[in-house]
Amino acid sequence: MDRTSLDAQLREDPHRRLDLLTGEWVLVSPHRAKRPWQGAVERAVAPPSLAHDPNCYLCPGNTRANGMRNPDYTGTYVFDNDFAALRPGTADAALDDDGLLVARTEPGLCRVICFSPRHDLSLGAMETAAIRGVVDVWAEQYAELGAREDIGHVQVFENTGAIMGCSNPHPHGQVWAQRSVPRAVAVETDRQREYFAREGRTLLEDYLAKEESRAERIIVANDHFVVLVPFWASWPFETMIISRRPVRDLTALTGAERDGLASAMSRLTRCYDALFEVQFPYSAGVHQAPTDGELHPEWHLHMHFYPPLLRSATVRKFMVGYEMLGEPQRDITPESAAERLRGALR
Length: 346
Ligand code: H2U
Ligand code: ZN
Fold this sequence. Notes:
Layout: H1 3-12, E1 15-18, E2 25-28, E3 77-80, E4 94-97, E5 101-104, E6 108-114, H2 128-146, E7 153-160, E8 172-178, H3 183-199, H4 203-214, E9 218-221, E10 225-228, E11 239-243, H5 255-275, E12 282-287, E13 302-306, H6 322-325, E14 329-330, H7 334-344
Parallel strand pairs: 2-14
Antiparallel strand pairs: 1-2, 3-6, 4-5, 6-8, 7-8, 7-12, 9-10, 10-11, 11-13, 12-13
The structure holds 5,6-dihydrouridine-5'-monophosphate (H2U) and zinc ion.
Residues 57, 64-66, 81-83, 112, 159, 165-168, 174 line the site of 5,6-dihydrouridine-5'-monophosphate (H2U).
């Protein structure tokens, strides 16, 4: 079958797409996008109106839940999470009961990163220069924590919106650093390593070239970064930001590239916020090479954005039923999601 009729068929017929980074399949059912919805409707939360909220534990000068006082910071501010999921110095111990009950203690640490002193901003409302400050802090955290003997992986991420379980509207993210490489990154490492060994180029370098030759899933691009809806996206408006140059982590980016990343993040979050005219909720994070002492030439830096909204500010996508028991499934195609996001800012 020729390319055009194949494309037409993928717009109409149920099919599965392969996620190159995980090796998993996602079921796409384009014909189903118009099914009626009588289920849960989320409460639309108004964005904060105060530039400084005296009750916010992240605002400058305020006291946190554990009694510590934040300094009067003017840019970004990093502190150890007062309720950390991981603790440094956790003593090594392992359980292996006939290979049936298996566990091991996990040392690590968690930090909180305030993106801005302004309580009422989000990435989509911040100046690109301020977002560049966030990129720099992420790179510093990766360098500092990744250099530690007891840290094999550093994850920086942001959770935003009450619907995503974010506890506070103040613009902030987190860093979790731990000895082990967590599952999602371990799987991406294996897939990228396999491709690099075979082709001598990174998987995402070749994937990006393919996407640019077709353009249909690209939302915006600059000299250094491309924002797109991946061919295999499972969340309705899932996106990735991919560096043009194959670099393994944020510390390898030049100043101009860091500006390029900040600009890509700004453009994308503005598209998101414009789509349903709300501060768009999502979980996002940077995937970089593990800091386990290996070189990782296969690793190609990228960001993932996973937003839950489906068709409006109040109707979300649920990953339940077939998705829990079988595999992820989506209705609107990645191509139409990209088209809508591209159009949102115009
Ligand atoms: P969210 O990104 O899910 O909103 O989490 C914010 C983090 O801030 C959360 O992990 C921490 C919580 O443990 N936190 C503090 O470290 N100190 C506080 O005073 C409140 C919240
Ligand atoms: Zn605040």
